[in-house]
UniProtKB/TrEMBL annotation:
It comes from Cohnella candidum. SMART domains: HTH_LUXR. The keyword Nucleotide-binding does not apply. One of its GO terms (biological process) is negative regulation of DNA-templated transcription. Pfam families: GAF, GerE, PNPOx_N. The lineage of its organism: Bacteria, Bacillati, Bacillota, Bacilli, Bacillales. CDD domains: LuxR_C_like. This is GAF domain-containing protein. GO terms for molecular function: DNA binding. It comes from the Bacteria. Keywords: DNA-binding, Transcription, Transcription regulation. Residues 356-422 form the HTH luxR-type domain.
Length: 431
């Protein structure tokens, strides 16, 4: 079979199966295929699935399924709400092929199955009915399609469709592309990316680094950033240390004058030429959903500290969120596509932060923003007053304060300010 059966367990066990389906067992030993753990996320219904069946005459049919339910390691089930041709085919020919997709890696799986029975009551039927009612309720359906039956299948074979996956990109290579983009877009000349190794101790493994000294100095240079990554992992938030070198020197001077032992834990922070000294550090977590995908760390030397130190912690948090989304999306992408996705994430975070940090949002009150947008759209003071239920005099007072806060000299200048930044297209507070 193409691609092999990676991660499968095949066991011989007599009379296997759920107790409710004993009548469908054979008395002789049965060759069972056990669903691997790596397929479980594909059975959560995040992405649609398909089932291919064939009639007794060999006429094929493919139907989309919203979800395939995991029953146990040997059994899956589907809901029959509107199945017609598929249900008839399964009565004539019980064999079928299901195809599911992992929502994180987009790896496709093929699952060969054999129909066992249809259930119209019982624990499994009630469980699937509850799941469908919950989805219908969230979708706002007043009359959801009734569940006619649950069709139960025995798994005959399962395999990942790796031949369709294209060239696999390693995590090191993928996150190396991210660090290159950070260098180009944000001038992060020195950076590293760390991944939790999954151990109970929460150890971190280096996935990629950029711009650090070569040879033995590289390991010494990574120590401060690894400590930053450990702090980010523990606090689950972005951190920023500006001009940390001068603070460390002050600390060691105080210790020395007090006669206390102590020296820098890393010579890297004090033994380099002035231009190459590490002065500031930043770290932010990247979350793919609720899962910590990795930790990004950046370091500024004396030469580029001015640019690096202007980064705000709010932007760092936003950057981590956008890169986390991109990290989940790029798991199956070739290097050039992964880099493009990271580039878009960085640009998106930069644009969102520029809008959030604009004086229009940080200086003006919600009422002043409402007045500004209406004035920029050509409303008269009287129309603004009527729409906001305030007096014309109050509108005039608001406009005078707006001109001062935004440093614009007239109504036309305010109009250009709002329109050029597309601030009028944003939803109003409370709308």
């Amino acid at each position: 079979m193409p691609g092999g059966r990676t991660g499968l367990r095949i066991v011989v066990r007599p009379n296997a199966g759920a107790a409710s389906r004993r009548r469908h067992r054979r008395k002789e030993p049965v060759l069972l295929i056990m669903l691997p753990k790596s397929i479980m996320t594909a059975l959560e219904g995040i992405l649609p699935s398909t089932i291919a069946t064939s009639s007794g005459d060999g006429i094929p049919n493919v139907t989309n399924l919203s979800r395939i339910w995991f029953v146990d390691e040997e059994t899956v089930a589907i809901a029959d709400q509107l199945l017609r041709k598929t249900a008839r085919n399964l009565e004539e020919n019980p064999f079928a092929m299901m195809r599911v997709v992992d929502p994180h890696s987009y790896l496709h799986w093929e699952v060969e199955v054999r129909r066992l029975l249809s259930e119209t009551e019982g624990v499994l039927f009630d469980r699937i009915a509850r799941d469908l009612r919950a989805v219908a309720w969230m979708a706002g359906e007043t009359e959801p399609v009734p569940l006619r039956s649950v069709i139960v299948f025995r798994v005959l074979s399962v395999r990942p469709c790796e031949e369709e996956f294209g060239r696999s990109i390693s995590r090191n290579e993928r996150f190396g592309e991210l660090l290159e983009e950070l260098s180009e877009r944000l001038s992060w000349s020195r950076s590293s990316f760390w991944i939790p190794d999954g151990s109970s101790g929460g150890n971190l493994r280096l996935a990629a680094s950029r711009g650090l000294p070569a040879g033995k100095e590289a390991m010494e240079a990574l120590k401060p950033m690894k400590r930053i990554a450990g702090l980010v992992q523990a606090d689950k938030r972005a951190v920023f240390f500006r001009n940390i070198r001068s603070q460390l020197r002050y600390l060691h001077t105080i210790r020395h004058e007090a006669g206390e032992p102590g020296r820098p834990k890393s010579d890297y922070l004090g033994a380099q030429p002035d231009r190459e000294l590490a002065t500031s550090f930043a770290g932010c977590p990247l979350f793919a959903g609720d899962r910590l995908a990795g930790i990004l760390c950046g370091e500024a030397t004396t030469a580029d500290a001015d640019t690096f130190d202007r980064i705000e912690e709010g932007f760092l948090k936003l950057l981590g969120a956008r890169l986390g989304e991109a990290a989940a999306m790029t798991e199956s992408m070739p290097p050039e596509e992964a880099r493009a996705a990271f580039r878009q994430a960085i640009e998106r975070a930069s644009m969102e932060w520029a809008r959030q940090a604009d004086p229009f949002h940080t200086v003006l009150s919600p009422r002043e923003r409402q007045v500004s947008v209406r004035a920029a759209q050509g409303w008269t003071n009287e129309e603004i007053a009527q729409s906001l239920f305030i007096s014309k005099r109050t509108v005039t007072t608001h406009l005078e304060r707006i001109y001062q806060k935004l440093n614009v000299g007239s109504r036309s200048a305010l109009t250009r300010y709002v329109m050029e930044k597309n601030l009028h297209a944003e939803p109003e507070e409370g709308s």
